[in-house]
Write a structure and sequence with these properties.
A middle domain of Talin 1, phosphatidylinositol-3,5-bisphosphate binding, 22 helices, mainly alpha, I/LWEQ domain, flat, 838 residues, I/LWEQ_dom_sf, single chain
């Protein structure tokens, strides 16, 4: 710019600004040099005190540094040498200059330029003053820094001198201490010398005594070594004895384990045995009474036989005498003899009639067993009467020979029958194995949905039934093995019980599979897989249980004790698998169960049954009052009456079923509790109790849903399909109640038969309600049918496509509804039912 303009006045402001910035930058660098940490990081440049000269000569070299401008100069000195690159502006035409001068514009411009130059000069002077002041401040700071540095140096020198003086004093003090210490050490050395001499004398004495002690210790060591060798021999013998005892202990532990398993499996048998013993005691009392009556009858019979024998002998002697008299008297006395014989014959007949009357009286006094005994005695009496003839004696001898032959044949036939019965038991076991295999196939088959209305409580009762049935089968088979050949000869042989209990076990395991698979669809996936895995383990244990009891497997064992152990081990394995399944199902039950430690369980069960009966009765009453509602439209009155009549039939049948279930439950408790109280029986069979209460609650809830749905149908707020679903729910809940009662039902029970009959009535009533609703739906659909004969091909195809679209929509809705139903049922097993909350 200087080379282009060539005017110092125009660039003076820029020169001054450059100079001021130069001084400021130099001050900043100086302050930075004072900071040691900053100088250790970066290199700070140094600037000269004066700014560089910005003016250049004509040859391009820098002009010598100008001296500082005086503050008194009023006008700047402009350079008279223009730069090479600067071009002088063209001069204005004289006409314009004259014109400007004439108008006064030129004067104004001159004044304005002078004013601007004065302002610039004032600014320059102010900047120069500021720079001078800053220079003075900088010099003052440097002087202060130098003074501080000198003071610090003096302070350091003073500190060093003081430290040296203190160090000299310390050294002097240490020297005195060392000198005193040296004197003390010299005195101590003299004392130590005297002490060492005394210790040397003591050491020599000690060495003498130590040598003597070492000799005695060597002798003791030799004695101890001999003792150690003796103890080592004793230890080896004790180690051998310990190994023998340990082996015997392990053998005893294995035997104890087997005995413990037998005890565990025999506990239930002991309880049943105690029950049977009590029944046996009662029967023994009755039998003692019968025996006393039998003894009385035998005494009477012996008296009659004795009197009869005496009379017969008397008559025989008289007959012989008469025969002799007849032979002696001849034909003349034949008439008298015949009359006498007829007279005696009449007396014999009278005695026989009297004996028959007494026998009849004795038969009236005794039971069937006494009658059989008396018949045998009569046969013996007839044989005794006929034994008077010698021909009958020979016939009796020949009969004895024939009896021996018959007994030999009977033994042969008995052995054949034993083999046949064993084969029959093998066939029954094989059939049960096949049924178990079919059950396993159904468990894995997706076509078998199981009992969708099953609950965890009911499934627990089925698990308990399987456990009891397996124990009964094990006990029956053990008794069969223990009895041996006698079990085939007895009339109440065990093979019939084996067939019955094995079939019951197979049936109960099949029910377990169906109900487990039913609840598997209503619980989370992980729980479903766990339940199905445990059920498959139970089925496998049952199958191996049956396979291990056939004659081929049992014949491989040496004695009956091994066979009994085989049965007990198989039963324990099955019981273990059932317990694992029961523990897992316990976690699937409702969060609020029955607290068996509080309250009277008999009252709780009775209250639940009473509440169910009240709910059914109130439902029936509500259905009777539905037709009196004024909101029902008159055009559908007949249809509504038919629906209400069918619903009333369902509720009446359910009421009868509740009554029958209550009676069956009472009979089960009264016959199954023994000496226990009802509460103890409910606590012992807690799973069955929970299943029974859950089933009764389900019946009450399903009945309430039925009446609410029927009310909604009459008020046209619910659909007929909802009524069908409610009816099916009632039928399913009543079937669950019947199945819960069937678990503990007695054999050939009249109350259970009544309950089954009531259940069939409920099913029939529900079917009737469903059929009635379906008839109404079919009637409505027939009224909406289209006459296909009047449709064109295009319209027929359109209708067909519309129906396909509707079917697809309904299928999608059905799948989504099934998913929601599964989620609702899964949630129902984790939370409380609505009845529990109420």
């Amino acid at each position: 710019m200087y080379q282009q303009l060539g005017a110092d006045d125009a660039l003076s402001v820029l020169f001054e600004r450059f100079d001021s910035q130069h001084f400021m930058l130099r001050d900043f660098y100086t302050d930075c040099h004072a900071i040691k940490f900053l100088t250790s990081l970066i290199t700070i440049p140094r600037l000269p005190n004066n700014p560089p000269n910005l003016q250049v000569n004509e040859d391009g070299s820098s002009a010598p540094a100008s001296r500082p401008r005086s503050t008194t100069d009023s006008t700047p000195q402009l350079s008279s040498q223009p730069t090479a690159a600067f071009e002088a502006p063209p001069e204005a035409p004289p006409v314009d200059l004259v014109f400007l001068q004439q108008t006064g514009i030129f004067d104004q411009q001159q004044q304005e330029q002078q004013r601007i130059q004065q302002e610039l000069e004032l600014q320059r002077q102010q900047q120069l003053q500021e720079q001078a002041q800053k220079q003075r401040l900088f010099e003052e700071q440097q002087r202060q820094q130098e003074q501080r540095f000198l003071q610090e140096q003096q302070l350091l020198l003073q500190q060093q001198t003081q430290a040296q003086q203190s160090r000299v004093s310390e050294l002097e003090h240490d020297l005195l201490m060392f000198k005193n210490q040296y004197d003390n050490d010299q005195s101590l050395l003299q004392q130590y010398d005297s002490r060492v001499k005394s210790l040397e004398t003591e050491l020599s004495n000690f060495n003498n005594t130590a040598s003597q002690q070492i000799a005695s210790k060597d002798e003791q060591i030799r004695n101890l070594e001999e003792q150690i060798s003796n103890w080592a021999k004793k230890y080896e013998s004790l180690a051998k004895l310990y190994s023998q005892l340990r082996q015997e202990h392990l053998n005893l532990l294995s035997k104890f384990k087997k005995i413990q398993q037998k005890i565990n499996s025999a506990q239930e048998s002991i309880m049943k045995k105690e029950k049977f013993e009590k029944d046996l005691k009662a029967k023994n009392i009755e039998l003692a009474d019968l025996i006393r009556e039998r003894d009385r009858a035998r005494l009477d019979l012996d008296r009659v036989k004795a009197s009869k024998d005496q009379e017969i002998e008397k008559l025989q002697t008289e007959l012989r005498e008469l025969n002799n008299q007849v032979n002696e008297s001849g034909k003349l006395q034949s008439m008298n003899l015949s009359s006498i014989i007829s007279k005696h014959q009449n007396e014999i007949d009278n005695l026989n009639t009297q004996l028959a009357e007494r026998d009849l009286k004795l038969t009236n006094l005794g039971g069937n067993d006494l009658q059989e005994k008396l018949k045998e005695k009569e046969i013996d009496l007839e044989i005794a009467q006929e034994s008077l003839d010698s021909a009958l004696r020979e016939l009796a001898n020949s009969k004895n020979d024939q009896d021996e032959i018959v007994n030999a044949e009977i033994d042969h036939i008995l052995l054949q029958n034993i083999d046949k019965l064993r084969k029959l038991i093998d066939v029954i076991l094989a059939n049960n194995i096949k049924r178990i295999q079919d059950t396993k196939y159904e468990l894995e088959s997706p076509m078998q949905a199981g009992n969708l209305n099953a609950s965890p409580e009911y499934l627990l009762s089925i698990v308990e039934l399987c456990s009891d049935t397996a124990t009964d089968f094990s006990t029956t088979f053990n008794n069969f093995i223990a009895d041996g050949k006698a079990s085939y000869e007895a009339e109440d042989s065990g093979y019939s019980e084996i067939i019955l209990t094995s079939s019951e076990l197979t049936t109960s395991v099949n029910d377990l599979m169906l109900n487990a698979k039913g609840i598997g669809r209503n619980i989370p996936r992980d729980d479903e897989e766990k339940v199905l895995l445990l059920v498959s383990k139970v089925l496998a244990s049952t199958e191996s249980f049956f396979q291990g009891l056939n004659s081929q497997s049992l014949n491989l064992l040496e004695d009956d004790e091994d066979k009994l152990d085989k049965v007990i081990d198989s039963n324990l394995q099955l019981q273990h698998d059932l317990q694992e399944l029961g523990k897992h199902i316990d976690t699937l039950r409702s969060t609020h169960g029955i607290n068996f430690s509080l309250g009277n369980l008999e009252d709780i069960v009775q209250n639940e049954m009473d509440q169910t009966a009240k709910a059914v009765n109130s439902a029936s009453k509500f259905l009777h009052d539905l037709l009196l509602n004024a909101n029902i439209s008159g055009g559908k009155l007949e249809v509504h009456e038919a629906l209400v009549a069918a619903a009333v039939a369902v509720t009446d049948a359910v009421a009868l079923l509740i009554v029958a279930a209550t009676e069956s439950q009472r009979e089960i408790v009264s016959k199954g509790r023994g000496d226990q109280t009802r509460t103890e029986f409910y606590k012992k069979n807690n799973r069955w109790t929970e299943g029974l209460i859950s089933a009764s609650k389900a019946v009450a809830g399903a009945t309430n849903i039925l009446i609410q749905t029927a009310d909604g149908v009459l008020k046209e707020s619910n659909s007929h399909e909802q009524l069908i679903v409610a009816s099916n729910e009632v039928a399913a809940s009543t079937a669950q109640l019947v199945a819960a009662s069937r678990v503990k039902a007695n054999f050939v029970s009249k109350t259970q038969d009544n309950l089954e009959t009531a259940s069939s009535k409920v099913s029939s009533a529900c079917k009737g309600l469903v059929n009635k609703v379906q008839e109404l739906l079919s009637t409505e659909e027939s009224s909406n049918d289209i006459d296909l004969s009047k449709l064109t091909p295009y319209e027929g195809k359109t209708v067909e496509m519309e129906q396909q679209v509707q079917i697809l929509k309904l299928e999608n809705s059905l799948n989504s509804a099934r998913k929601r139903l599964a989620e609702i049922r899964k949630h129902g097993y984790r939370d409380d039912n609505s009845d529990d909350e109420e």
